[in-house]
Amino acid sequence: MENEDYKDRDISWLFFNERVLLEAASSTTPLLERLKFLAIFSSNLDEFFKVRISQLRQLKSVDKSLRKKLISKPNKKLKKILRIIHEQQQRFGAIMEAIFKELLKEDIHFITDEEVTSEQKAFLNTLFKSISADCEVLTTDENPKLSDGGLYLFVAQANDTYHFVKIPTDLHNRFVQIPGNGHSFIFLDDVVKMHLNQLLPEGAIEGSYSIKLSRDAELYLEDDFGDTPLADQIYDALHQRKSGQPTRLLYDANMPESYKEIIRKTLDIGNIDLFPGGRYHNLSDFFGFDNPTDNPDLTYKIQVPLPHPILSRTKDFFASIREKDQLVHFPYQSFDAVENFIVAAAKDDKVRHIKISLYRIAKASVLTDALLLALENGKKVTIFVEAKARFDEKNNIEWGNIFQDKGAKVFFSIPNIKVHSKIALIERTEADSLKRYAYIGTGNFNAKTSSIYCDHGLFTANPQVTADLHQVFSTLERHLIIPKLKRLLVSPFNTRNVFLQSIENEIKNSKKGLPAKVTAKMNSLEDKTMIDALYRASEAGVHVRLIVRGFSCLIPKPASELPSASEPILITSIVDRYLEHGRIYLFHNNGDEKMYIGSADWMTRNLDRRIEVLTPILDSDIFNELNDILKLQLNDSAKARVQDSDDSNTLIDLQQENPIRSQYAIYEYLKAKDENVLS
């Protein structure tokens, strides 16, 4: 979509990552949290190279005559992407240097191998003996295979021999605390560098420089799976990531040109894949750097997850949901509500069947234990496991096999489509009839991610909603081809049409002189048809207000380019201590407002190539609660940045006397509601 009507998704994504970098640069962010934002930026960029840059490179390999027929021009686009990344990495280095200077004021010292004292050297000599066996040594003349994402030192010796020495950060702490002033640390990289003469053959060390190689993360499965189950094909193909096509080699910018050429030829990579960086790479390791001081101001103040006013205190989960729909909000409220729902079902004698769709499964959790307990208790358990969830394939497939071995009915991926929905259905016998209870969420069934991802989940016993969800699971179980739906939006069946009809309805109302609004919050906005509908709505005078955390391909037009009665589209993005992940869609509908939450963004893949489930919010109390939360986010003026046509990432100016920081305001809002229940 490289034309004047739409932003390029990859370029827009880079400016989302810039918003992460801006949090690292901000003096209002606690000092050690600024390091964490550097880690997020670094981790995001690694995945960008493994996935998006890899896809661009594959397009570049297409025959030039065929490529001319394609919309995208990878050479031109790739150059622009690399220029932006280079600029951002220059800023990254400057921000990191500034943070390290601030850390010195807190008596936290990061020292290099050139700065160690004799006492510290003796300490590190002893330490190195315990880790030396884990430092893999590869020579350049043995066709070395560098691992994806691994840290290495490229070492040149006086006898014209060259080696790659792996830094064992997968086995040992990257940040080694050593004796010294205050809280002193040295990178493991430097510890290895200091002892290279103990690892390599005789010969003076002429130079050593840090490098890191990223590889293509795509699995490139065949379209025809034959008789081999898809999950087995995926599991068997995971080894490809270890030897995938290189997409980026980061190297110390101080490395001589002659050494770069040796590396390039040894690893058989192009000049375009070489990226200068700082002395250290893989700074996503800062995720694991804990506060070594007694100063609590260096990190965010702990927000203890709130109990859900009803579900955290109920003695009968099913009675509480049967009486009234219940809504949970993570990470503000405890994930216990979801886990206890499945635990209650596993233990309840009246429960006959548990059905659940799992996209990213935790390695071990209360939820997985509850599903295993349900099987032990003789209940039917049907689990849909998405084997194509990138970077979680291995864990998901292994868990699917465990569930299957224990007696669950397990369905793995459907070819050419992902199941991204976050749904569960409990079937229970009550008064000799079947009663269903549903959970529909915006985030994964994962306690760990629920502590950092902002998501919403609905518990309901509404007969129409649960009947629709039963249809969805029947489709996943291959009993149906197309579900019959009355309430739910389910991609790829009716989601796109319902959303487009809802926008068109707002356009019609606006043309009649009625109030008309489209308010939506999502992770990404990319689908051209949806964007075109929003353009038409804006030109027709519909008030369009969006919150898009990540990239947006929509280009907001200034008021001067719109009809006189029209309003420009305003898009903001909130980057704060938690990752905004919820999807909320609100249509004014001439005062009879309609709201949906669920797993789908307005991306073509979410509307056409994934199984996604969104539910209407039918309970008036829950509607009002979610609407209040949405308003807090729409009025955020502390962390919300405008996504304009220039990608300026400027903080929004709402002229508020007391700026609203929505993530903190939402916590206080929910805390007050819980206190009101107790009082």
Give the total of beta strands: 26
Q: How large a portion of the residues is in β-strands, by DSSP E?
A: 15-25%
Number of helices: 20
Q: Tell me about the largest β-sheet.
A: 9 strands, mixed
Mean pLDDT, to the nearest integer, reads: 91
Shape type: globular
**Helix fraction by DSSP (H/I, runs of at least 4):** 25-40%
Describe this protein's structure.
The chain has 679 residues and is of the alpha/beta class. Helix content is 37%, strand content 21%. It is built from 20 helices and 26 strands. Strands 14, 18, 19, 20, 21, 23, 24, 25 and 26 form a 9-stranded mixed sheet that branches. Strands 10, 11, 12, 13, 15, 16, 17 and 22 form an 8-stranded mixed sheet that branches. Strands 2-4-3-7-8-9 form a 6-stranded mixed sheet, with helices on both faces. The longest helix has 32 residues, at 74-105. It starts with 8 loop residues before the first helix and ends with a helix.
